[in-house]
Amino acid sequence: SGAVSGLASSVCLQPFDLLKTRVQQWDVIQNGAEKPLKIAVNILRTDGPLGLWRGTTATMLRNVPGVAVYFTGLNYVRTVMATSRYFAATWTQDRSDNKHHSTLPKLTSQGNLLAGATTRTAVGVLLNPFTILKARYESSLYSYNSLSQAFIPLIRAGPSQYLRGALPSALRDAPYAGLFVVVYERIKHDVGFVRPESTAAMSTAHSLSAASAGAVAVLLTHPFDVVKTKMQVRHEARYTGLLQTISTIHRQRGFVGFFDGTVLRMSRKVLSSAIGWAVYEGILIVMQNT
């Protein structure tokens, strides 16, 4: 279920990832900042419509197993935490038929925050080499023509490069995932009392809940996404460390520089959350009812 949702969102929304990476990649002192529309027009002019899907294979290598492992791990962690009286939810249901509501364990807000943050961070660190591969393949700073051409230099760089950008990724993913799960479960719980009568209606509720949660979480965590991209696609000494990269971005672009690509990431996250969670929970509901 998680793999299918990851595949669907990766293929549908790759242009948002591509444009976001290219907006964030620039060293403003040398190259100036490019606008998403200008980048998209240049890609269409040189590579055609399919150019907007450059890096889709790399994205699927990162996101399909990543989403599958994340959903599986999240479900497992929440199941374990639901056995604890400190994290088990005490929400009361005012209806007897809950077959369309959700199949996931119910936790308190603190439990959802902890489960989402720890699971997402663990998966992010595990798959960080593929995150680097994805970012560099999407970036125009690298002229890769195949995945092997992109992957071989990363392997040759040695283990020290495998976790490049992992710290800002964790600082982005932990609060993002934690906040997302908290807001998602809260909205979904409130929407659940509308008493949807079909799986389609419940999938719509799941999509709206996930989209809203994604928007809130993106706004609060985007600066670390910018830092992560800079560290993974640029090799200059000023981008080798977390604090050094933060200082460089602030010096070159000021506070606004930490929000480069926000609209693209929010659009991507809102849509991927809506697609991913609707597909994930929809498949689980169907499997549970068969």
UniProtKB/TrEMBL annotation:
Keyword line: Membrane, Mitochondrion, Repeat, Transmembrane, Transmembrane helix, Transport
PROSITE patterns according to UniProt: SOLCAR
Membrane topology type: Multi-pass membrane protein
GO cellular component, one term: mitochondrial membrane
Database matches in InterPro entries: MCP (IPR002067), MCP_dom_sf (IPR023395), MCP_transmembrane (IPR018108)
GO biological processes: glycine import into mitochondrion
Pfam families xref list: Mito_carr (PF00153)
UniProt repeat feature Solcar, residue ranges: 1-80, 107-190, 201-286
Compartments reported by the entry: Mitochondrion membrane
GO molecular function per UniProt: glycine transmembrane transporter activity
Keyword Transmembrane helix: yes
Keyword Repeat: yes
Family: Belongs to the mitochondrial carrier (TC 2.A.29) family.
Protein's name in the database: Solute carrier family 25 member 38
Annotated source species: Cristinia sonorae
